[in-house]
Amino acid sequence: MSEKVDIARVPEGLAEIPKFTDVVQHALISDVLRHTRIVSSKQFCYNPTGIWRTDATPAPYKPKEAIGFHIVASGTLWLEYDGVRQTLSEGDIVLLPFGASHWIGVGENGPIFDPGGDLPPAPWDKVPIMRYGDDKTEVRILCGYVISDIKDFKPFRSQLPEMIHLSTQAGDGDDWLAAIVAQIITEVDLPQVGSPQVLERLTEIALLEVLRREIVSSRSQAAGWLAAVQDKRLSSCLASIHRNPNKNWNLVKFAFESGQSKSTLSANFRKVLDMSPMQYLRQWRLFLASQELRYSNESIAEIAYRSNYGTEASFSRAFKNCYGTSPAAWRERYG
Q1: Is 251 in the same domain as 315?
Q2: CATH of the domain at 303
Q3: What is the mean pLDDT of residues 65-85?
Q4: Taking a C-beta distance cutoff of 8 angstroms, is the pair 143, 44 a contact?
Q5: Residue 74 located in a structural domain
Q6: Phi, psi of 147 (to 5 degrees)
Q7: Higher pLDDT, 10 or 132
Q8: Of 175, 199, 220, which residue is a domain's last?
Q9: Cis amide bond preceding 123, omega within 30
Q10: How many CA atoms lie less than 13 Å away from 311 in the CB half-sphere?
Q11: At how many degrees (to 10) do helices 22-34 and 232-243 cross?
């Protein structure tokens, strides 16, 4: 076995590259998705007929931080985003992580329907069905939003595009996601006891699968966090952080884990992630802390200590710098 070397003393470029396999890459992606949960969701069934248009962006029922979605249950329509139209068909799923402005419709210059503005006051004991027009040609869309902590981790948030369009009917063979979509539609059409809760879980599964497929399909053009995950040396450092986020890390230890000198590692982090290894560590720790505030009953002081902050005050300052609100306000809002 070779002797361990102090990476801090190794000349630039001479550190040994650690062994690497796709297992590391997959583990990092899985770790982020594993921490993705739906905090809340709301959906309604939109059944317009004939020729129509809908500005699908300004919805009073939709919180600012929500991820909007459309699931096409039947029929064909167009979606226009950024001046470009594309066709949506049965089984298609569209996610809009940042609420991008868009229109949906059938035909040209039809009447403008506003289902979001016409929704009954919440809470709903079952999914509202909004019907418009009297034509026989009907489109059925499940519209709504999810609030998910997927966007709370900033390095991953930067990977999300403005819009994701996935067809569950494309390709050969059966797509299990199509079965999930079919069950979502069934829960809307034939509501049973517990349907709202089942719908939320099914929507969560669909969201995770759409995100996973988006990540896999975009790896060849990767930038930012996904590019770092695919970089053999950077991913070794990231994997160490995700494996043991509460370890007493420093740049020397990160350099040893990644097989690079301190200056090379720092430069590569800046180039790919636009942050230092220690900044990434703080982002991940604060993300985990945000989830503990949301889902656990532990005190803020306990969470601060586990997140490697010496005092609750220093943790609160760091948390507010990252999320724009104090830990107490975050817990009150999301807990």
Answers
A1: yes
A2: 1.10.10.60
A3: 92
A4: yes
A5: yes
A6: -105, 115
A7: 132
A8: 220
A9: yes
A10: 3
A11: 40
